[in-house]
Amino acid sequence: MRSLVVRLDSFGDVLLAGPAVRAVAARSTHVTLLCGPRGADAARLLPGVDEVLVWEAPWEGFDPPPVTREDVDTLLARLRAGSHDTALILTSFHQSPLPTALLLRLAGVGRIGADSADHPGRLLDVRHRRAAGRHEAEAALDTATAMGFPPPPGDDGRLRVLPPPDTTGLTGHGPYVVLHPGASAPARAWSPHRCAEAVTLLADAGHRVVVTGGPGETALTRRISGDTAVDLGGRTGPRALAGVLRAAEVVISANTGPAHLAAAVGTPVVSLFAPVVPAGRWAPYGVPVILLGDQSAPCADTRALTCPVPGHPCLDEVTGQDVVRAVHKLIQERQS
Length: 336
What we know:
Elements: E1 2-7, H1 11-16, H2 18-25, E2 30-35, H3 40-43, E3 51-54, H4 69-82, E4 86-89, H5 98-106, E5 111-115, E6 126-128, H6 136-146, H7 168-171, E7 177-180, H8 192-204, E8 209-211, H9 218-225, E9 230-231, H10 238-246, E10 251-254, H11 257-264, E11 269-272, H12 279-282, E12 289-292, H13 313-316, H14 320-335
Parallel strand pairs: 1-2, 1-4, 2-3, 4-5, 5-6, 7-8, 7-10, 8-9, 10-11, 11-12
Helix pairs in contact: 2-6, 8-9, 8-14, 10-11
């Protein structure tokens, strides 16, 4: 059976789809993952994926593209060429799978399933309804199970990626803690002065600190690292970043892709979690986590991209010392 899994949004969202992808792969001869450009690098890290198709959906992302007939026709041609027998559409709790389902119907996919709060008409063959409060990784796996793809025997349902490379050449030898200061939206980020404070206090407590960031975050990582931390801003692609995170004692991160990548390589996370989305659905999954941030702040559940509360109190009231204490607790738990 040739199967298609669809997850059209971001890097972290695609990583959270990983357990569902493995369930599909266990009962398929070929698995194609259709994703957006922000999730493509994560798709290429997932076990069980044979082919990655990248398409930017006009209903996803911060700046979606216009709807054009040419773009849709090109996608339909690519999907028809795949001759998929079945498709599993994965979405977040606030998203509808039905636009995607319509395109898959037009492409001739034989059997389509998704989690849908909306009446699907003839667009879905399997309509799953998620249980309240399920984590996004669990909800995706539940939907796969409803489609006839339960977890394979021995699979613990945690996040996983293909084995990353050794990155000692980047980090140097000896234990270290990773601080990832960036986030996909400003409302989710811990302020740079707090990040710099944490770097100083962690170093004073005897930790080696590695600061990570993407190509567009080099000024941020340089500012935060100062003369104290190893600055890897802009120096790690997704596979190398996975290696850096895997070898860390603890990763400190906001609710953004690298937090989920840390979980996928089994590293404990200090999660600086702004409550604009629910932590019960989006916190790092399957590893020891300490959640910092006021989850009852006025911005809770707003899905805001920019903090609507002056002073960003939900995160900026978290101090560097709070982070140091959380790091020590996770290290002690890991060693016990």
